[in-house]
Amino acid sequence: MNASEAFDTPHGAHSHRAEHVQHMRQRLTAGPREALSAAEQQNLLALREEEKLARDVYATLAARWHLRPFENIVGAEQAHMDMVQAALEHQGLPDPMQGLPAGRFASAPVQALYERLCAQGLQSPQEAVAVGLHVEELDIADLRAAAARTASARLRELYAELERGSRNHLRAFFRWQQQLGGAYEPRHLPVEAYRAIATSPKEACWQ
C-alpha cells in the first residue's frame, strides 16, 4: 500500500483523486524546469510540509472523533502533498518529508504546531473542528502569499488548485461548527475574507 492509499477516505475516492493528481502531475512537469528564486523554492518546500501537517492532524482527529470532514479530507490532503511533490521533483528540489513517518516533521516550528493542534483537537469534537478551520485558514493565507510571490504560471496554477480545495475544506468545517457549536476566530485571514469563504457555496472541485 502506498502513502496515498494509506491516507485515502474509506468511500472509494482514491481512484478519482489519483486520476486528478496524475493529470496535475502531467501539467506541472510539462516543459523544462524553471529558474525559481530562493523564495519560490522555499515556498514550495514549506507547502509540502504544511500539506503533510494537515493530513497528519486530520488523520489523528479522525481516529479519535470519526467526524465526516476529517475522514473525507485526509485523502484530499494526501493528494495536495502529491501535487506539491511533483512540482518539487520537476524542479530538482529535495523532498523535506522524505522518510518521515506520520506526525514527524523536518521543521521544529511545524513539529510544535502539529503537537499543539493535535492536543487541542483531542479535547472535544468542537475543538477538533476549530483545528480544522485553523489549518485551512492557514493554508489559504500561505497559498495566496506564495502565489503573489511568483511569476511562474505553473506554480500559480498549482496554488490556485490547492486553494480551491482548501476553501471547500474550510466550508465543510464551518458547517460542522454551526452544527456542533464552539467558537473560532480567524487569525490568518481578515475576518471579512474568512466569512466570505465560509458562508459561500461549495465550488465545483474534485475534492
Proportion of β residues?
under 5%
CATH topology: Ferritin
Please write the CATH class name. Answer: Mainly Alpha
- What is the domain total for the residues? 1
What average pLDDT do the residues reach? Answer: 90
Can you describe this structure?
The protein is an all-alpha fold and 207 residues long. It has one domain: Up-down Bundle (Ferritin), CATH 1.20.1260.10. It contains 8 helices and no strands. Helix 3 (38-65) runs antiparallel to helix 6 (125-148). 40% of the residues are buried.
Key phrases:
207 residues
Write the layout of secondary structure elements.
Blueprint: H1 3-6, H2 14-28, H3 38-65, H4 68-91, H5 108-121, H6 125-148, H7 153-180, H8 191-198
Helix pairs in contact: 2-4, 3-4, 3-5, 3-6, 4-7, 5-6, 6-7
Question: In brief, what are we looking at here?
Answer:
With 207 residues, the chain is mainly α. It has helices at 3-6, 14-28, 38-65, 68-91, 108-121, 125-148, 153-180, 191-198. It has one domain (13-198): Up-down Bundle (Ferritin), CATH 1.20.1260.10.
